[in-house]
Amino acid sequence: MQQLIRTEWMKVRTYKAFWIMAGIFVVAAIGLNYIIYVLTNSIHEQTGKTAGDALLGKPFSFPDVWNTVSWLSGWLLFIPGMIIITLISNEYTFRTHRQNIIDGWTRAQFISVKLLWVVSLSALVAVVAFATALVFGFIAGTPFSGGIEYIGYFFLESLSYLMAALLVGVLIKRAGLAIGLYFLYIFVLKYLIVAMVNRENTLQIGSYIPLNITDKLIPFPFIKDAVKRAIQPPPPVYVLLMGSLAYLGLFYWWMLHKFRTDDL
Amino acid sequence: MTILSVQKLSKRYGAIQALREVAFDVPQGSVFGILGPNGSGKTTLLGIVMDVLRPTSGSFQLFGELPTAAHRRRIGALLETPNFYHYLSAEQNLKVAAAIKGKGEADIPSVLARVNLLERKDSAFSTFSLGMKQRLAIASSLLGSPELLVLDEPTNGLDPVGIAEIRELIKSLAREGKTIIMASHLLDEVERVCTHMALLKKGQLLISGKVSDILAPGDIVEVRAVAGTPDITAALEAFPGVQKVRTEEGLLELVFTQRETRLGELNEYCFSKGIILEHLALKRKSLEARFIELTEN
Fold it and tell me: CB-based contact (8 Å) between B85 and chain A?
C-alpha cells in the first residue's frame, strides 16, 4: 500500500495543474465564506441586530458556523472534482493506465490508488472547511461550541462528489467531455431531476438521487426558521447516511467492474 | 523451459476476429519474433499476454504458471507506443515505472545510458522526439534487468543508426541469456535478430519454429538444358550444396542449403557431365518473396 501511495505521489508531485487547482479551492473556500460573512454583517448593520438575527440567524457564530461553512464550501466541491477527473483522464490520455498494468499493477490496484485520492482530497477539503469555520467562528466573537458533525457530513459529501467525478472519468475517459457532463449533472440535471420528480411525489423520491442525498445532510444555513416552516423536513439523517454510503459502494463497484473487464 | 506458452488464444472485436486459436511456445533464452503484416494480431496477442486486453477464449502461461501481476513485474515490456507522463522528466518517469515494478532506482542511470538518453534525463517527456520516446520506452523495459522482454515494434520511429543500435542491444541482451519476444512487420528484422519466430496473418498462426527452418537461407538457381537432353535431375542433385531440385515453369530450380553459389563451377560441372545448359541464372529468393509466399492464401 505504501508503495502504491508513493508511486501515485510521484506522478502528481510536480504536476502544476494539480497545485493550481488545489490552491484555487483553498482561496475560493476562504474567499466565498468571507464574502458571505461580510454580506450578512452588512445586512445585520442595516436591519439592526435584533431584526437581523431574527431574519438571518447567526450563521457565522458558533455553533451555526459549522453548518454555514460546510454548506458554502459544498458549492466548491466541483474544484476537487475537476482535479480527480484530470488525474484519471491524464492516465487515459497518456495511455499510462495501460503501462501501469503492463509494469505490474493489478487492475484493482490501479483503481484503488485513485480511490485513495478521493479519500485524501476529501480529508483535505474537510480540514480546510474545519479551519475556515474555526477562524470565522472566533472572528464572529463567539465561544467555541459543537455542531462539528457538519464537518463530518461535509467530508461525506466531498467523498460522494469526488467518487462521482472518478466514476465519470473512468466511464468517459476524455477530460473535456467528462468535466462537461460532471458539471451538467451537479449544477443543472441534479436540480432539474429533483424538481421534476418531487413536484408530484409526496415521498420526495427526488431527494434520494446521487449527490443530492448527501447535499441534504447539510441544510440551508440562512433564515433557518423561515425555511423550516416553508419546506418539507428532509429525510432522517441515518437514511441520508445509509443512502450516501450505498451510492459510494455502488460507484466503486461500477468503476472497478468496468476497469477490470474492459480492454484497456 | 517454456517462458510463454500460448494455448488456443482467440480475440474478437465485434465483427473482427483479431486472433484465431493461436498457440505456440516461447523457449527460454530465445529471441522470439512475432512476424506479420499490419493488422495481423501481433499487438493484440502481446496485449493479452500483458493483461491490457481480455482474450475471448483460450489461455496462456508465463514462466510455466498461470499469469499474475507478479509475473508481469518480471517482464520488461514496450507495447505499441511509449506511454509516459508528458509533464514528468525521463528520469521521473522511470522512477514511476521502477516503483510499479517494485525495483530500486539504482538502475535508472545505466538504462538511460544504454539507450543514449542519460544527458536528457531531466528533460520533460513532452520535449522528446519520436525516436527518443521509443528509446525511453526501451530503457524502461530494461529496468531491474528482467528475465523476459516483450518488445512490440521496438525500432519504430528510429533513424537508421538508432535501428542498428537497438538491434545490437537486443542481440547483446540475448547473449546475456534473456528471453526476448519481439513483434515486427519487418521480415528482415526478424531474420537478423531472432532465433525463433511465429508468423501471423489475419489473426491466424501460419507457422512457428526456428527462423533457420522457416526462412530457408539458401540460393535458388534456375537452369535449363538444351532441347533433347535426357533427365538431368539426378546429376544436379549430386552437385555439392544442392538440397533439392524441382521443376518450375519449364525450368529446373536448384535449392541450395546456403548462399554464395558459384555459377561458374555449376556450369563447369554440368559440362563435365555432358549437360549443355542454355539457361543458368541465380534467383536469390528475397526474404520478402518468402514472406509473401508464406502469407499468401
Answer: yes
Q: Which residues of B touch A100 (CB under 8 A)?
A: 100
A104 to chain B, any CB pair closer than 8 A? The answer is yes
Q: Find residues 242-261 of chain A whose CB sits inside 8 Å of chain B.
A: 261
Domains of chain B: 2-214 (3.40.50.300), 220-295 (3.30.70)
Predicted pLDDT at A230:
67
- On the 0-12 / 13-18 / 19+ scale of CB atoms within 10 A, B44 is buried
pLDDT in tens, B228-249: 888 888 888 889 888 888 887 7
pLDDT digits (tens, 9 = 90+) for A107-157: 999 999 999 999 999 999 999 999 999 999 988 888 888 888 999 999 999
The counts of H helices and E strands in chain A are 13, 0
Residue A40's pLDDT is what? Answer: 87
Inter-residue contact B162 to B155 (CB < 8 Å): yes
How far does A245 lie from chain B, in Å, by closest CA? 31
Q: How many residues does chain B have?
A: 297
| Option in B50, B84, B99 nearest A96 (CB) | B84
DSSP secondary-structure letter at B54? -
Q: ∠ CA(A128), CA(A134), CA(A9), 5° rounding? A: 20
Total of domains in chain A? 1
The residue with cell 542498428 is B164
Interface test with chain A among B53, B83, B103, by most A beta carbons within 10 Å: B83
| A15, A90, A98: residue with CB nearest B52 | A98
pLDDT value for B214: 76
Q: What is the pLDDT of residue A134?
A: 92
Of A171, A172, A211, nearest to A189 by C-alpha is: A211
Length of chain A: 264
Sign of the CA dihedral running B122, B127, B133, B135: negative
The DSSP call for residue B124 is B
Determine contact: B70 vs chain A, CB below 8 A.
yes
Cβ-in-10-Å burial (0-12, 13-18, 19+) of B106 comes to: exposed
Is B45's pLDDT higher than 80? yes
d(CA B266, CA B279): 12
Q: Is B16 on the interface with A (CB under 8 A)?
A: no
Q: How far apart are CA A118 and CA A169, in angstroms?
A: 12
Q: What is the CA radius of gyration of chain A?
A: 20
Which range marks the domain in which residue A17 is found?
Answer: 2-261
- Output phi, psi for B11, to 5 deg: -145, 130
Is A109 within 8 Å of B50 when comparing Cβ atoms? Answer: no
Which of A57-61, A113-117, B22-26, B88-92 is predicted with the least confidence, judged by mean pLDDT? A57-61
Question: In this structure, are residues B199 and B35 in contact, taking their beta carbons and an 8 Å threshold?
Answer: yes
pLDDT at residue number B290: 65
Q: Which parts of chain A sit beneath pLDDT 70?
A: 49, 51-52, 54-55, 225-230
CB contact under 8 A, B84 and A100: no
